[in-house]
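Q: What does the assembled structure look like for these inputs?
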Amino acid sequence: MIFTTILIAPLLAATLSAMMQKGAKFLEAFTLLSSTIIFICSLFIARTVLADQTCGFPPYFEVNSLGAILLLVTSFISLIASFYSIGYLRAEVKKEVIGFSRVRQYYVLLNLFIMTMILAITVNSPIATWIAIEATTLSTAFLISFYNKSSSMEAAWKYLIINSVGLLLAFFGTLLFMAGSTALVNNHGLISWNDILANAKSLNPVIIKISFIFILIGYGTKMGLFPMHTWLPDAHSKAPVPISSLLSGVLLNVAFFAILRFKLIADTAVGAAFSQNLLIYFGLFSIILSALLIYLQINYKRLLAYSTIEHMGIIALGIGFGGIGLFASILHLIYHSLAKPLLFLTSGNIFLKFSSTKIAKVSGAFEVIPVTSVLFIIGILAITGVPPFGIFMTELSILTAGIQSHPVITSITLLALVLIFIGFLKHTISMIFGEKPKEIEAGEVSKLNLIPLIILASTLIFLSIYLPNPLKLLIERAAQIYTL
Amino acid sequence: MENIISSQILFLADLIIFTTVVLIHLTKKNVYFIYLYAVQSLVVTFLMAYSAFIDHSLMIGLLAVLIFVIKVIVAPIFFLKLIKAHTLNITSSNYLNLPFTLVVIAIITTMAHSKFFQPLASLAPANENALLISIAAMFISLFIIINRKGALSQMIGILSIENAIVSFALAAGLEQGFGLELGITFDIFAWIVIASVFVSMIYKKFNTLDVSVMTKLKG
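A:
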């Protein structure tokens, strides 16, 4: 029942939105209602997982501890993004950038996007997961080209092609993973994640190694790992900000989840060292690349996009290091999922006010939009790992996990993180302080564009200071599941 | 005896797919590579129908019919209409010239038969040649996307990768259940529709399908 509700709610919202001929308020209400239902259902699922280890509707759906965490993060950020979309789209309509049909298209696709992400997290079969992740690409392509400009069209095409190639390679890897398990097909024609895991020791180790390389390249493309990251800065910078916040804060986690599930099977079949080494190198190069590009960046949305690549690299590195690194990576994922949407959404307010995404064209933001600026600074401090924000602790734990086994890699990472901090500081100072342009009037965009940001920032600060026991338990269990 | 026949049939089918992928690299006219894609898809459909016949599976047979309708009829008609609507008779050029393209294809084919991919032949030792040639077709299709400047060619490249993977799966005995196969087919169909709409939108914006002139993202 709960799985039906969580999937039907966004589908219904999308269908009803598609049928509307006028009345943007109805579109907003459908989406907000659907997102609220999804969030409530996620809480119920998380509660069940806490009590029973898993929550499922066999043989189609099953959510474990990490699934529950991702479901909570996805539904919370979706709710925030839906809320923020109201004020953002109203402002765009007011500026006559878009009309009703565009708004309708936006809400239809937003709901489908949320539904496909929920599906990818909850389904119990690797092939069904692939189908759902492929569907996320299809539902977001038109959201990236939303403004119908040449640049957004180009970004969307790049996104569609690169992700489709990546996902086809992931599909190939998935089929190879299932090669030794075809005899396990149940009455419903499904092979579940657990079936493959239970059979992992009998799988051909060489084939598993080849399969995992395909999986890592394939889903790594979706996760934005170097060198398959090229679509990410373009797509994230061209999409409307609520979509960028979902792409960065949630969608990449879904791809990460798929990699982690295959990693567990691969580790059982061939030992952990193989996948760990691959993740360490992919992670390290993602961090180095983003450090250099963050420092040199001239566009603040691209700056945030490269920061996403950096954090995906940190997560990959943490998993690669193993031990405490895995727990820290999962916690890092949660903090990143809160901090990055906060930054994207505040950047949305900056964009609505300054009508430019160029860092050079934004100055004196504190004078123009003081509340947004404070929230932006909170986001920057959180994302660069300044204490007391949680990312400081998770990055420290990941580096601690790696310092003994991989001292050189850990040192390089530390240097890169320092460079990233300096880069962010440089850009933030130039945007927030200084003299405001005379033609821009002081005053926040609207309350609707602030309330979701304040909720998000408060949650981020709260979770940085205090980690509630149920969440801690879920993270501990998730780390246990994915450790051999 | 049945195994030998199926091995021969599979190898022949995969050889046709491989040949169509190579020919897509060589052809200059958009219309031709749509036809080549249709031929390739027809072979995949045949393999699926053959698999349904061997396994006496009505559902897989129905799926083969559905794939035939989508990949052999609907998709090529879609693409041909697109070409007609925008008078895109000649495809955009390659990044590499013809001799270099052929050299890369030869390297990829050799690589697919290298020690790295050889273990995959153990999935179905009787179909070793079919499996390895499917892998070659997959990577040569990937090379279409890298080497061709046309958006339409890139689309065909993606769909060719998918055909090569399906033919690999059939040769390796990795067919999925009906529900999942249906899901995959639906995804592919949605992809074809969405990518076609994008191709049309790109043409309207840039007045060409040459992706090398799409440089608005720089800076």
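The longest helix of chain B spans residues 178-206.
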